[in-house]
Amino acid sequence: MLNNHRDRTEAFAALLQQHPLTDLLHNAPHVSMDIVRSGDLAVPISVCHDDAPQTWVTSPLAMYADYTQEESRRHLPAYAAHPIIAAVELLKRYLRQQHFARAVTLNNWLISTNLYPALIPQAACKLLQQTREHYPQHALWWRSLNPIQHRDWLQFLQQQGCLLIPGRRIFILSDPAAARQRHRDWQHDARLQRNTRLHYCSDADFQRTQPYERVRDLYNLLYLAKYSQLNPQYSHTWMQALHQHGLLHLQGYADDSGELLGVAGVVANEATLTTPIFGFDTSVAQKVGLYRLHNGLAADYAIEQGLSINMSAGAGQFKQHRGAVACMEYSAVYAHHLPRSQQRAIRAVQFISQYVAAPLMQRLDM
């Protein structure tokens, strides 16, 4: 699997040239993709043109409004959820009037957690300038930034005039090998891996059998059926293209008949791994431990490659019991070139996210 940023970007560019976005991602209407380059730095960008309903990885409106409503329904009692949902609905009307969804997201790999290259300040500054000039009516967004792994990026983008908007509460495992030695839950997981009757499927097995439709279905069972339709709705073509372009490493477990029961699909750069393609057959009894087994596969690969793990959001107690540290993830937004009314809308979202949503996520362990 590719982990050098330049190699990953070129492979992603080739993937986008070969496949229309609508063949890869079903819930991103009115979105286009491109690659922007400056010197030694190049990143993919998504361009969201309007407020059509779509996945939160391409639309700030979906991320900060639609997803907030869904999370309120899922985690809060009705007496608390209903007024929040109603208030957000009013906020959405205002944000639509101010074209809040009109956004360019830089370094957007169309996954929940975008991995970042080493910061090259001069090149990054030129990227911002080029993108602002090319899309003068769009706010410029950088997603998936956290203070543990991206302190330099956050400081740099603030210096350029970006606002930092809290998004999700995520979990970082900086040293998976050390965590395995210290935390008993990892040892229980390792015992489960040793004793399972399921059959391990390596990346080479996936290359040979190419069960990409099954990979898509397992992802859908978890991320769409169990969690949210606002998560990316990938096609099997997306799974296949990522894997065959060297951008995705797949592992999993199958039953005696050879049917794949779960998948852990990881992406990585020089320092960090994350698992955007993850899923399992949710009808299988919990005692089989499919979630634990596949989480363990991602950790195995991280240790083998000497990588930290960005464990993304959700299942906070599970991740903290295995040594992960919670932190807030941010979006950095540049909007100085936009009308003042649009800037005020972005500042309103920043205020609500910072003083209402973020404290609530921490309090509820969301």
From TrEMBL:
Keyword Metal-binding: yes
Keywords, ordered alphabetically: Metal-binding, Zinc
InterPro entries noted in UniProt: YbeY_CS (IPR020549)
Organism: Vitreoscilla massiliensis
Protein name as catalogued: BioF2-like acetyltransferase domain-containing protein
Record bears the keyword Metal-binding: yes
